[in-house]
């Protein structure tokens, strides 16, 4: 087993309230690992700790054996860890192609300057089109992002994320707000892009978790309640009690 991302004793306290308590987690390289739990379980806080939007009260985070506990989000992005947010984060007035091009220019250390020559602005177009094709948006390449249906916007966000060439993707509720058709489309997309990457995702849709995940970690009240494949965790009495007790709020 090769571990991509590891948390050891990760804890976060807010003025005496312990949101995450002594969590140990190992995400194996090349797998899809889901983080689930009822509302208030500490998933978002834990995810924010891993992606460095929060600093832990104590504990250690390792990426491929390297201590990243005190690194800033931009630093871990340069290591190959990229986060996709729950709310679609695209430039609404730019086209699909331009959105992916921005990500490519950012990866190459360039700014997206509209006063540059057309040649300078378009030299990443062929590469951008490859990412657009990869997420199934070829027919929308010239459309403004604002014109896309919600599920297509999420696909565009994933295309822009892939343009940053991540080795590990952290997906924050990728199916939030989607209808069934979009859920199926984005699930297939995640499975496709996971073929040569590691993915950790927070997700509420348990059918998505069941279909996509190699391993699942269940949090409740800031602690790990269960871990394993879906067949294992779904039969856990503690997990069933936690979800029923929370009333699926």
Protein described:
With 249 residues, this protein is α/β, with parallel strands linked by helices. The protein folds into 2 domains: 1-80 and 169-249, P-loop containing nucleotide triphosphate hydrolases (Rossmann fold, 3-Layer(aba) Sandwich), CATH 3.40.50; 89-165, no CATH class. The chain has 10 helices and 10 strands. The strands form 2 sheets. It has a 6-stranded mixed β-sheet, sandwiched between helices. The longest helix is centred in the middle third of the chain and has 14 residues, at 150-163. The two termini are 36 Å apart.
Based on CA atoms alone, the radius of gyration comes out at 19 Å
Question: What is the number of beta strands?
Answer: 10
Oligomer, anyone? Answer: single chain
Low-confidence spans? none
Mean pLDDT: 88
- The fraction of residues in strands falls at 25-35%
Distance between the termini: 36 Å
Largest sheet: 6 strands, mixed
Number of helices: 10
Sheet with the most strands: spatial strand order: 6-7-8-3-9-10
Write the CATH fold name of the largest domain: Rossmann fold
């Amino acid at each position: 087993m090769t571990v991509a991302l590891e948390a050891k004793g990760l804890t976060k306290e807010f003025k005496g309230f312990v949101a995450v308590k002594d969590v140990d987690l190992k995400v194996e390289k090349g797998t899809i690992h889901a983080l689930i739990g009822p509302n208030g379980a500490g998933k978002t806080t834990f995810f924010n700790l891993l992606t460095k939007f929060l600093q832990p009260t104590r504990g250690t985070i390792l990426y491929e054996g390297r201590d990243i506990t005190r690194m800033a989000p931009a630093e871990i992005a340069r290591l190959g860890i990229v986060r996709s947010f729950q709310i679609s984060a695209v430039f609404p007035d730019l086209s699909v192609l331009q959105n992916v091009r921005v990500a490519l220019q950012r990866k190459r250390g360039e700014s997206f300057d509209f006063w540059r020559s057309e040649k300078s602005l378009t030299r990443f177009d062929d590469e951008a089109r490859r990412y657009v094709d990869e997420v199934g948006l070829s027919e929308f390449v010239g459309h403004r992002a604002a014109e896309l249906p919600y599920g297509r916007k999420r696909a565009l966000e994933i295309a822009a994320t892939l343009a940053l060439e991540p080795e590990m993707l952290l997906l924050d509720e990728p199916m939030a707000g989607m209808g069934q058709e979009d859920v199926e489309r984005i699930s297939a997309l995640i499975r496709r892009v996971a073929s040569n990457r590691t993915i950790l995702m927070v997700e509420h849709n348990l059918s998505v978790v069941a279909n996509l995940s190699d391993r699942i970690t269940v949090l409740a009240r800031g602690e790990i309640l269960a871990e394993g494949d879906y067949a294992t965790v779904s039969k856990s009495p503690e997990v069933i009690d936690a979800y029923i007790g929370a009333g699926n709020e």
